[in-house]
Amino acid sequence: PVPPTPVPPTPVPPTPVPPTPVPPTPVPTSGFVPSFCPSGFAADMVGAEGSLSHPAHGSRYANNEQLCWAIRCAGLLTLSWPRFNTESSYDYVSLHALGATGAELISRTSGRTTPPPHLFSGDFVVSFTSDGSVTREGFAVTWTCIQP
Phi and psi for 129 in degrees, rounded to 5? Predict the structure, then answer.
């Protein structure tokens, strides 16, 4: 007798498994608040560009202020200072790089000299403190966030 001819198995294509979608990581709009911001943030700003003015143009800031503003950027951030006038050596505008658990002081400036130019990566805080006497016109800062 003749042996049967073996029939090769028909290949079965694998069933495609759709990929599991991974949700995007949200940009935090809150979280760590540094100790030098006892009242939290006066504003938590996210955007490609913006501006901050304290106080409103034409008035003076108050005595004994301690304010903070967070500015968040997913790219590189540039700053410019169209107005800057605080009581020299007593009332300060400070810039801090903001991390998940801390804030690093970048500059602390007072008087009429604007803070040095900076290029930031990520989030940062502008803080303002005034003492109990002389007040001035304050400051205005504008920023641009350059997306990667």
Answer: -130, 140
CA 62 to CA 133: how far, in whole Å? Answer: 9
Say if CB 55 and CB 107 are below 8 A apart. Answer: no
Angle at 109 between CA 37 and CA 116, to 5 degrees: 115
The pTM assigned to this predicted structure is: 0.74
Residue 130: per-residue pLDDT? 97
pLDDT tens for 46-73 read: 888 999 999 987 799 999 999 999 998 8
What residues are paired with 109 via a beta bridge? Answer: 93
Residue appearing with tokens 């970048």: 106
> CA-CA distance, 36 to 15, in Å (whole number)?
58
Phi first, then psi: give them for residue 108, nearest 5 degrees.
-140, 115
Question: Which residues are CB-neighbours of 109 under 8 A, at least 6 positions away?
Answer: 84, 86, 92, 93, 94, 115, 116
| 143 and 78 Cβ atoms separated by less than 8 Å | yes
Q: What is the mean pLDDT of residues 87-116?
A: 90
